[in-house]
Amino acid sequence: MSPVHSQPAPSFRFRRRRASPTTAELFPECPDVISPMQMVHDLAQVVDQRGSNSSQATPDCPPASRTQHGTQNRESDPVRIDAAAPPERAHARLVGIARLAASSRPAETRRNSAERPEYFLLPVKSILNRCDSNRVPFEWTINPYRGCEFACQYCYARYTHEYMELDGSEFEKKIYVKKDAAPLLAQDISRKYSYASESSGGEKPDHIAIGTATDPYQPAEREHGVTRACLEELAKREGLSISIVTKSNQIVRDIDVLKKIATRSSLQIDITVTTMRPRLARMLEPRAPRPDLRLAAVKELHEAGLAVGVSASPLVPGITDGDGELEAVAAAAKEAGAEWFFSGVLFLMPSSAKQFLPFVREKFPRLAKQYEQWYAKNGYAPEEYRRKASERVAWIRKKHGFRSRPWVEIKQTLTRSQLSLGWDGAAQKMERTQSCAAG
């Protein structure tokens, strides 16, 4: 069991509000029109012969369009040798990150729990990764690890393991620790980063989003400290624009370095809380810290003078969208000191659907038909549902006096329209023009 689960509950308590299990108006009954397995098969046809995305997408960045990523074609794709195999066993047809992953050596760990994942040391050439997708409002990403032990049932980032010719189901079982993070990041900032981004007309610095495809404070961080090493390097610079998103209260360990960054650069922290119900949170996010621990982290970060907000993304139709449920998260966030609040509707890429739809059939069978229809042909809920969710979030934000996130406020000043991540789309849709990667 991960150490984060053994921590005592915080000394303060958030008022709990009753919430119905579903919102009938937003999640109507619909006939079963297609099976989830057929959905995965249909979307699998759009990948190229290597099973990779368009040239614009990167393993740490959402794919550039709704139809440019799917599951792997296991009959024609390169053969994947087990990641623990010696380098000489890596198949010649594996290229790029897949070849690196296949030759990665096991990483040392002090953990002896039977539930622990396998850890590998991944030799990478860069830590700061360019995000060219027009669906995201940031220029760079930092993901200290590949894979995430929290094992969220809905996680959109499972597709990133497919770049390594691994199945998305291994996302929480094989965790890759990026080597030499700090020196690589120092080189990347000096060589790549712009303090006068082209998108802002030279007026604002590029934005760096930390934790877009893996949680930077998952249990691996306790042993390997890659996130801490990256933050210490960023603390040496000034004039940067940075945001961090996590579900872990472990982030409070780094308050000292976060405060250093905040004095020299723009820093915003997003803590994700999808539901106030502990049992439901454990079902959806099996190994993530409890909701009360995350909110305790919000309170501690706020009291340390850091800019922190709460993300209730994804909003899971029929499961976390019940009457009063999203409102309860927002109220608890406000009580903890969150400055902003946002939520976006569940987005399911094929690799995520393959994991999430069987989960729905098992745990929420009455919702199975609806999910199979809604997510049969693309990864998005119907526009009408997303519109109502967006209006609901806007009303909640107005009621509690939440501000927009600072780096989103900056992006609003840009003259060109930018698209948003699905897990953030509901909030941003009310704030700026957008045309969905979430979860």
Question: What's the SSE pattern?
Answer: HHEEEEEHEHEHHEHEHHEHEHHHHH
What is the CA-atom radius of gyration, in angstroms?
21 Å
CATH architecture: Alpha-Beta Horseshoe
Q: Catalogue the unreliable spans.
A: 1-7, 16-57, 63-92, 413-439
How many discrete structural domains? 1
User: CATH first level: which class?
Assistant: Alpha Beta
Q: Portion of residues in helices?
A: 25-40%
> N-to-C terminal Cα separation, in Å?
24 Å
Counting helices, strands and paired strands, the structural category is: alpha/beta
The outline comes out as globular
What is the CATH third-level topology name?
pyruvate-formate lyase- activating enzyme
Question: How would you state the average pLDDT, rounded?
Answer: 77
Q: Count the strands?
A: 11
Strand content: 5-15%
Strand order of the biggest β-sheet: 3-4-7-8-9-10-11
Major sheet description: 7 strands, mixed
Number of helices: 15
Can you tell me about this structure?
The protein has a single domain (3-429), classed as pyruvate-formate lyase- activating enzyme. The radius of gyration is 21 Å and the shape is globular. The model is unreliable at 1-7, 16-57, 63-92 and 413-439 (pLDDT under 50). It is of the alpha/beta class and 439 residues long. It has a seven-stranded mixed beta sheet. Strands 1-2-6-5 form a four-stranded mixed beta sheet, with no helix packed on it. It contains 15 helices and eleven strands.
